[in-house]
Hints:
Structural class: alpha+beta
Mean pLDDT: 81
Strand order of the largest sheet: 6-9-7-8
Number of strands: 19
Amino acid sequence: MHWGETKTWYGVPGDDADKFEEAIKSEAPELFEQQPALLYQLVTMMNPGRLQELGVKVVGCDQRPNEFVITWPKAYHCGFNHGINFNEAVNFALPDWLQQGKDCVLRYKQHAKAPVFSHNELLITITLFSDTIKTALWLKDSLAEMVQQETTRRDQLRAQIPLLAESLVEEDCPEEQYQCCICKGFCYLSQMTCSCTKLVTCIEHADQLCGCAKSKRTLRKRYSENQLEDILSTIEARASQPGNWLARLDNLLESPRPSLKSMRTLLADGERIAYPMPEVEDLRALVDRANAWVEKVSALGQRKPTGRRRKGRQEEIEETDRSPDALRSLLKEVERLAFDSTEIIQLRQVLHDIESFRQQAEMILSTPDDDLDLEQCRTALILGKSLNIDMPQIAALSTVVNRLEWFIKVDEEVDDRTLTLANVLDLIAEAEACNVPATHNTMIELHKFKAKGQAWADSVSNLFKQQSITVDEITALVEGQEFVPTDVDLMRQLETMKKTAQTWQTSAIAQLSGSGSATVAHRLLKQIKTATGPVGRIHVPEIGQLVTEMDFHNKWMSQVAATLNVRETQIGTSLKLFLQLAENGLDPEDDTVKDDYATCFCRGPPTDTMVSCDDCAGSYHPKCVGLTVKQVDRPFTCEMCDQPYDANRPSLNALSGFADDHKWNFIIMPAEMEIIRSINRLFVRYATVILDIANPANKVEPCRDVRLITHHLRKIYNIPLLFDAHDYETNTIIVFEHWLKRRWREAVEHATAVKSRPSTASHAGTNQRRTGDQKYTRSRKPKFVLKESREGEFACICTTPPFDHLLVITCSKCKQGYHASCVHCPPEMIATESKWKCPCCTIRAGQHYSRNVELRVQMTGKCSSTIQGKALMNSRQGNR
């Protein structure tokens, strides 16, 4: 009951069901005559008190919420509610209900009452959907009874109707095809059918199906007899497994010492049976004890564990007791367990072998070493170790064998000349381990060798601690040590150091012999510098000389790099570029002007399309001066005419000084020095060609050939070196490009002056130039006079004091100040005055002042510390 008012129950137990039926029939016989199945219609009640008077047991109870009431099979019950309530009823059955269910089916057939379900179908369904042994045990009797009764009924029917037609329908039919139309019972396994009707009957009422002849009727079967027998045999085989296993157990236990193998097999079979049997647990306990005993015996037959533990293993290896007493204890234990196995025989054999070994070992240990045979001792030791048993005689016998082997090893195998310190220490340790007396002659000799070897090792250790190590010291420790037991690793290290030092020495000597190269020398010194440990402290005199030479070489490289204004790593590349440009520009074949001579900076032959400079009238390839074909017709001024003279290029005179053998006396000559010499040779040859043309000392007649002068200017224009030389007579620096440009202007001015004269004068002037007359001079009117140079002061050529410090420029060399406008200084140079030089310093250096200013000088005397002369500065305002 879930909730609600009380419900009162009355019931008659199943044992008094027959009394109850007789009592109610006696009270109302006329009702049962009219309706024989009155008891199954649930419409009749009888006073409980009257039933008790008739001797029927009646019980009662009151059911309240959250209480259960259970009615047993065959029990009659009734009840009434005291009010509104909510109840739930459920039908369920336990395995022992099957027989009662069958009785109920028979009772229903007697009264033609239709049952709720087919009892035979229930049995078949259980066999198909439950394969447990427990189900088979409580199902087999009912199933066997069903198969036996069904087979008997079919046989009786076949006897009554010969040649009876039969059919097997293995699919389930609708429920009405299994219900007998006579008794209303379910005939699931077989039915009687006829073609004249859809009704069926059970085998018992086969005659009442219809009025047709019996030969027209058919026995329809759901399962054949063979199928029923197979189902029954399967259930019976499943149900017999526990009994069969118990029978095998009884048969095995009849032996006083059953085989352990048989017990293991029987236990495995019992564990596979899915049915609880206490005997299986008892057998498992016995087999587990027997297996534990066998494992102990098997462990004695395995090799002894080394005691090492695998990585990650958390438990230590459990040590096994391998003493003879432990084996005897195991033998007594197996006598109590009362089982038989091959390990028992093996254990007895091991105990017999232990006793034999013990006797043999005691005999050997009692014999002096001189009287013992090594092979006999080894054989006995191998026998003892093969037993895998812990016996004190094994360790003692092993010591004896090791001692005998040690004596033979020292006498036959040890050579004093090949003996190392490690060998000596090992021999002494082996002797002490096998109890060789320290007073033995061999032990005394070994200790002497040990002292020699340790003294040698100490000498090597002290050598490695020194700040400076010589090759002779290394050689002294390596050679002459044939009878000294040295340390192999230390000797190998010394030999490596000696070989390394000799290699360095040989390489240094080869480099210092004059046939070396700076690259190889640098690589050798880098290798020596990176050496670590004792090797890095080896002193080789030749290496010191090589270091001095390379320092001298580095000094030369540093100064060359400063002169060229490049990094030291770029010296070789820069010099090769200078050499290439010099070879191309200073080609002897191009020294003179020819009719088809090349005027372009590249010195290449002219092409169909050329561009001409408005100032020097030189023809250039458009590509060489950065022009396209479309720009050829535009006004053009070449770089040589348009840009000021670059005086910051590397000086050829300074560069030539680095090829001086007297100042730079190298043992290992730098490769770059030969390139400088090649450059010098080219410029020296070319200087002889243009010396008279430039005429810096005014010793020859001036050259008036503009084409020739511009030809040589273009030859040296693209060479990134300042073509200068030292004039030892005047102790001044001559810049050939500057003097060539000066001669070029003079030649242009001379040609202009000649053109401006009358024709006769012009003709005469032409003749004079051809005859070398140099008396014609263009009139000049000085605008400013430079009277003197005042270093470190403001002294402009206009003699006016400074009126604004922002418009003042100071010379970077003499520190004299000027008005920027008076000296025509470009505005951008005022902010970077550290690069500006005044006209006086420019004249003194023999350089061109500015491309927009023409500076003329009339010398009145020799220059001294104070310049005395007149200079006219006119701004050239050319349209370019």
